[in-house]
Design brief:
Layout (H helix, E strand, L loop, with lengths): L4 E5 L6 H10 L8 E5 L3 H17 L5 E5 L2 H4 L5 E4 L5 H14 L9 H25 L4 E4 L4 H11 L4 E3 L3 H12 L7 E8 L2 E9 L2 E2 L1 H11 L7 H13 L8 H4 L1 H10 L4 H20 L19 H11 L4 E8 L13 E9 L2 E4 L7 H23 L2 H9 L7 H14 L11
Parallel strand pairs: 1-2, 1-4, 2-3, 4-5, 5-6
Antiparallel strand pairs: 7-8, 8-9, 10-11, 11-12
Helix pairs in contact: 1-2, 2-12, 4-5, 4-12, 4-16, 5-6, 5-14, 6-14, 7-9, 8-9, 14-15, 15-16
Cofactor: NAD(+)
Pfam families: Glyco_hydro_4, Glyco_hydro_4C
Family: Belongs to the glycosyl hydrolase 4 family.
Length: 433
Amino acid sequence: MATIKLAYLGGGSSRAAGTMASFIAHGEEFQGSEVVLIDQRADELEVVRTLAEKMARDAGLDLTVTATTDRRDGLEGVDAVLTSFRPGDFAMRQQDELIPMRHGVIGQETQGPGGFMMSLRSVQVFQGLIADLDDVAPGARIFNYTNPVNIVSQAVEDHTDTPIYSMCEGPMIFWPSILRTAGLDPERAEVIMAGVNHNCWSTTHLYDGEDIMPLLEQAWDKVQGDLTVPVWERRMLHLAVAMQSIPADYFKYYYFGEEHFREAQASRLTRAGVILSHVDDYWAHYREQAASEHPRLDPERSRGGIHELELAIDVMSAYYNDVPARLPVNLLNTGGALPGFDEDTVVEMWCDVDGTGAHPIEQKPLPHAVRGITQQLAEYQRLAAVAAWDGSRADAVRALVAHPFVPTLAVAEELYDDLAHANAAYLPDRLLR
């Protein structure tokens, strides 16, 4: 077992209780370790610390949990940093979703202009984090869940020597839902996905060892007119059949953009609004359980459930315990592991992770039918990383206009200025001029 000192930046967030439950579920792999919860919200930090301390005690674990609002102090001497935070909280996410819609553009947390603004806010925090690590924990490694994970990783890789692995369950969870829509058993399938984060496609898709596409085609013939199947499930199955590759869920915004935009306009709440309507209940539940001698988190009253960020913990365990595991990781495409993408571009792909790091398995190229849009999104990712790290308004506009959601230069300029005004408290002057 690995004994490490782990800092959790975002340890007072609404996801943090579930993350600590996940870490404790893996606690035997980290006996004797210390977790330092770091956040700006002192009251919420104390709730999560109390919960984690009691859950670890009940599990019989030797695990120390501390909390601080002083980031630099909390990072002193750490081996690893788990990053999962949201600058501006859900209020700014709501603006990321609403403002683009005023310009006729989809607003979404990680995609397009909304995701771009999230990346600008997030990277500012990472710059301060890495400066602190250079001073007080120069050997630390970052395990990142802060969105958009691909742009954050690209910016850090381009400008620092700090090791960073970014994670997302997408390649593990996108395809089973499409198979279930088709009436197929995911346990009988082998599906490998690759691309850029939230925008990956299947390069291998087998069912009982044979190509799955004929089965998906047969299923589509049956369900395309079946109104008992939810519309988004039918659309994603349709897209898989049309492209002959199983897509990430987020491609619904690209291939069914007009439909999504109209439906979003008709909704009373954005996704951020829906989450905000539940946040008070999450914290009421966490406080109730923190006051209990034997806390038990209810997945229905916990943000994201009770096994949050488990993939990051799996990657940490494989690395620090040197126990090989095959897991999806976002990292540089060193050696051209994923054909069709530059070596200095961060891509998402399955890797073998062990005590020496994350090593891509042999990757097949994306099918030509879907390679172009994914390459376009990879180029946008690189431009966004430039703007976020040290760029200007001009760099930001160049990034936005490179994104498929943004139709013209005029829209990019007007939309960026509108978003930058709303985000002024979170952005450096160089992005506001």
